[in-house]
Amino acid sequence: MARRPQLMGTLFRYGPQPAQVAFRSGNFKLQVIFIGGLTDGFFATEYVEPLARALEAEKWSLVQPLLTSSYVGFGISSLKQDALELEQLVTHLINKEASEGVMLLGHSTGCQDIVYYMRTGSPGSRAVRGAILQAPVSDREYRASLPGTAGFIDLAESMIKEGREGDLMPREACPEAPISAYRYRSLCAFMGDDDMFSSDMTDQQLKLRLSHMLRVPCQVIFSMADEYVPDYVDKPALVQRICNAMGGAEKVEIEWGNHSLSNRVQEVVHAIIDFVKREGPTGWDDPWC
Predict the structure, then answer these.
(1) b/e string for 138-172 if b means 16 or more Cβ within 10 A?
(2) Rounded to whole angstroms, how far apart are CA atoms 223 and 235?
(3) Residues 6+ positions from 26 with CB-CB distance below 8 Å
(4) 42, 86 in Cβ contact below 8 A?
(5) Is the pTM of this model over 0.90?
(6) Is 105 within 8 Å of 134 (Cβ atoms)?
(7) How far apart are CA 152 and CA 170, in angstroms?
(8) Rounded distance between C-alpha atoms, residue 211 and residue 165, angstroms
(9) Exposed (0-12), middle (13-18) or buried (19+): which is 4, by Cβ within 10 Å?
(10) What is the Cα–Cα distance from 144 to 127, expressed in whole angstroms?
C-alpha cells in the first residue's frame, strides 16, 4: 500500500467564511502560497509534500489555502472572488503572522488566480515578492475538445443576456461540479475572464492579459507532455510567447512532464526551490513597501 502524504503544521482561519481556512507547514516568516486548480484542495499535487519539506530546509513555510472555489466550488465562484480571498490571506499573513515576504505558486487554474489577483493592484498584491505559474494552460482550448461545448457556450451567453449569469447550467455542461452560466462562459469562451494562456491569442492579446506580471519576478513551469494541452499546440512556442507577454518571465520546460508533474516531482521541486532562493527576499523586507 502506497504511503499517503502527510505534513505537520498549523490549520488557521484567514477570513470569516467557513471555507476560509489554510494549512501552514513550517513556522517561518517567509511563505509560499500554493493555489491549486479546478477541483483542488489540500495536497493538490504530488509535489506539495516534498516541496513543503524542501522549503522548510530553506526556512520558508508552504501555505495551502482553501478558497470558496476549492474542490467542487469553482463552478459557482469566480477569479474575482478568489482574488478577494487571496487578499484576505496575504493581509492576514502580514498583519497577524508578521510575514516578511510572500511568494505565490499557482497550479493549473491557480495560475489564472495569480494573474487576476496581481492585476488588482490591491495592497496585498503589492506585497507579493514573486510568482510561479506551474501548468498555465488554456481551459478554453481543452474544453473545446469536449462534445457539446459550443452549444453550451451559446446557452451560457443567452442566459447572461437574460440577466441569469448566476443560474446553473445543465449538468451535462460540467459533470464534475455545478457551474453557473457566468463561470462556464469565463472558462470556455474566447477572451472570457479565465482565458489567459490560449495558443490562438495574438501577442497583443496575451500582453493585455499578462504584461502587468513584469512587476515581480516570475517563473513559468510548463509540462511538455501536458495532457490538457491539445496536440495541435506548439508547446515550446506557446510557453515562450507567455513568458514574453509577462515581460521576460523565467522559463522552465519539463520534458515528458504531465499536467500535475506527478512523474517529475523532484524536477519541479528543484526548479521552485532554486527560484525562491534566487528571487525571494533576503533578510528583513517590509512587505508593505
Answers:
(1) bbbbbbbeeeebeebbebbeebbeeeebeebbeee
(2) 9
(3) 9, 52, 55, 56, 59, 60, 61, 62
(4) no
(5) yes
(6) yes
(7) 9
(8) 29
(9) exposed
(10) 37
Bridge partners (DSSP) of residue 107 are: 134
| Sequential pLDDT tens for the chain (289 residues) | 566 778 999 999 999 988 899 999 999 999 999 999 999 999 989 999 999 999 999 999 999 999 999 999 999 999 999 999 999 999 999 999 999 999 999 999 999 999 999 999 999 999 999 999 999 999 999 999 988 999 999 999 999 999 999 999 999 999 999 999 999 999 999 999 999 999 999 999 999 999 999 999 999 999 999 999 999 999 999 999 999 999 999 999 999 999 999 999 999 999 999 999 999 887 555 665 5
The single-letter code of the amino acid at 101 is: G
C-alpha cell at 186: 469565463
DSSP state of 229: S
* CA-to-CA separations, 90 to 81, 104, 118, 121, 285, in angstroms, rounded: 14, 10, 12, 13, 15
Hey, is 259 helix, strand or coil? coil
Q: Which residues contact 90 (CB under 8 A, 6 or more apart)?
A: 33, 99, 102, 124, 125, 127, 128
* Look-up of cell digits 496575504: 90
Round to whole Å and give the CA distance between 22 and 88.
11
Whether 130 and 217 have beta carbons less than 8 Å apart is answered as yes
